[in-house]
Design a protein that fits this description.
Oligomer: single chain
Number of strands: 15
Shape: flat
Strand content: 15-25%
Length: about 525
């Protein structure tokens, strides 16, 4: 859910903090007050194009932040516009493309063509699948497609291996024997041998230095000092701490001396040992040079060659088995896709009928809505076809894809009808409608308000409206105002109307342009009627 929108120095907005709540959020205000700026600001947080021309005159940059609640945690999307633009996700550097990717799962904007997520065929197909109750069938197709693709790739690899011929197989066997002969068991063997080589080269000097250290530890008098202070502590207990510390030093020095002695015993100055280490390192370096630069990559290559050459022991049989698995998985994929297609056809018929009924109630009498299932060139992870939603506004006019519907207000109402019908299947948490009231009034406006209210029970809904009949249904009524600021320039601000009296005053202004007793009475009636519906 969108919790808050923070705007600074964007066009006419000097600074504004708009809080949104669950359910239906209505934005109203006089013409030119800046209602569209709030939608524009939200669009920027979702990765829409922005430029320095949107920065408020006199400011260096504009900043917009959208605070969302996602999975119980806060998610902050931020944009900065100016000479140097920037995007951030929870304070981390990002780009507008990453904001758009996140935004696709957070908000659907309806009213400006470039923001219509529902105009995308993939989104339409997913919405249809949800409405048809076919999401599990869709997941089954995706799983079958993955299995089939894996089987196809296995056949391809085996056939490529077969086509390489006997000569390449012999070369692969030679590589495998070379790797096996190297007897690599640990990926860190070369590092250990390098350390052993260094010690072997300086074994005599290391033994000499170790003995000197042992002798020094014996001669430094720590043992004598410990015994002396221990005797003194028997006479004056205040020396007990010093006696204990010297005893600890004595034990520590004894341990170090013992470890140095063991180290010296393990040192091997035999030239044969150094020669053996150098020889082994030479073998390992050669293997690393040929097979990827590390012992780890050499071991990976050994396993790969063993698998490939193991398959060649009965290559023809392996190819035949893989082809049978591929053919079987293809049959299973086609069956899964067929079940999904059948569910889509039934869902499309039901959705067409339900959406048609909604269009009539939204003063789009005579309009037609259909869902065309377009066959794909090949079965993919989402099935054998894609959905394309088609619309005709008037009788006699041809059905066209939603993306080619010209009227913004008309398109917004179509979107509202589709969203109302598919509300339970729509997984986007926040829906935004701009221009949804264009060209309507009276009963049609009330019907739009009813549908927006119903959507608000399942989603967070944001609506920009000019009609009091729609605004009366708000769960949160946000008033956008434009007034001169301290510097004499107009400034846009937003505040929520929380009292019924304030809401009635705004509805009265929307209906008659002024707050008269008659308009106030009608405004209170609208609020009561909306609350009772």
């Amino acid at each position: 859910m969108l919790k808050e929108l923070r705007v600074r120095d964007l066009a006419l907005v000097a600074e504004s903090r708009v809080r949104f709540g669950p359910g239906l959020n209505l934005l109203t205000g006089e013409t030119g007050s800046g209602k569209s700026l709030i939608v524009d600001a939200l669009s920027l947080t979702l990765g829409a194009r922005g430029g320095a021309d949107q920065v408020r005159h006199g400011a260096e940059r504009a900043t917009v932040e959208g605070v969302f609640e996602s999975g119980g945690a806060a998610l902050v999307l931020q944009r900065e516009l100016g000479k140097r633009s920037a995007a951030r996700i929870d304070g981390r550097q990002a780009n507008p493309g990453q904001l758009r990717e996140l935004g696709r799962n957070l908000v659907a904007l309806h009213g400006q063509h470039e923001h219509h997520a529902l105009l995308d065929s993939d989104t339409q197909t997913e919405l249809l699948d949800g409405y048809a109750g076919a999401l599990e069938l869709r997941a089954a197709v995706a799983a079958s497609h993955g299995a089939w693709l894996g089987a196809v790739n296995k056949v391809r690899d085996l056939e490529q291996l077969r086509s390489r011929g006997q000569r390449e197989q012999e070369f692969m066997r030679w590589q495998l024997e070379e790797l096996r002969a190297a007897s690599i068991t640990r990926t860190s063997e070369d590092e250990q041998l390098s350390a052993d080589r260094l010690a072997a080269r300086h074994a005599a000097r290391l033994a000499e230095l170790g003995q000197e250290a042992i002798d020094a530890l014996r001669e430094d008098g720590v043992a004598r000092a410990a015994a002396t202070v221990r005797s003194a502590a028997e006479l004056d207990p205040r020396l007990g701490d010093q006696a204990a510390r010297l005893e600890a030093l004595q034990e520590e020095s004894s341990d170090v001396a013992a470890e140095l002695r063991r180290y010296g015993e393990l040192l091997d100055s035999d030239p044969g040992r150094l020669e053996a280490i150098e020889s082994r390192l030479s073998v390992l370096e050669g293997i690393k040079h040929k097979y990827g630069g590390s012992l780890e990559s050499a071991l990976e290559e050994l396993r790969r060659l063993e698998l490939q050459l193991g398959a060649t022991e009965d290559l023809e049989g392996a190819v035949a088995t893989a082809q049978a698995e591929r053919d079987k998985s293809r049959v299973e994929l086609e069956a899964a896709a067929s079940r999904l297609s059948e569910a889509r056809r039934g869902g499309a018929r039901r959705m067409q009928k339900a959406t048609g009924g909604e269009l009539a109630g939204l003063r789009l009498e005579g309009a037609r809505f259909e869902i065309a299932l377009r066959p794909a060139a090949e079965i993919g992870v989402s099935g054998a076809e894609g959905a394309e939603m088609m619309f005709s506004a008037n009788p006699g006019e041809p059905l066209l894809p939603l993306a080619r519907v010209a009227s913004g207000g008309e398109l917004a109402r179509v979107m509202l009808a589709i969203k109302t019908v598919g509300a339970d299947a729509d997984r986007l948490p926040t829906l935004v409608f701009d221009e949804v009231d264009a060209g309507i009034g009276g009963e049609a406006a009330i019907q739009v308000g009813l549908r927006l209210k119903a959507l608000g029970a399942r989603h967070q809904v944001l609506v920009v409206t000019h009609l009091a009949q729609i605004a009366a249904f708000a769960d949160h009524h946000l008033l956008v105002e434009k007034a001169p600021g301290p510097d004499g320039r107009n400034v846009v601000s937003v505040r929520e109307l929380t009292s019924s009296e304030d809401r009635a005053r705004e509805l009265a202004r929307m209906m008659s342009g002024g707050v008269t007793p008659k308009a106030m009475a009608r405004a209170h009636e609208l609020l009561q009627e909306a609350g009772g519906r």
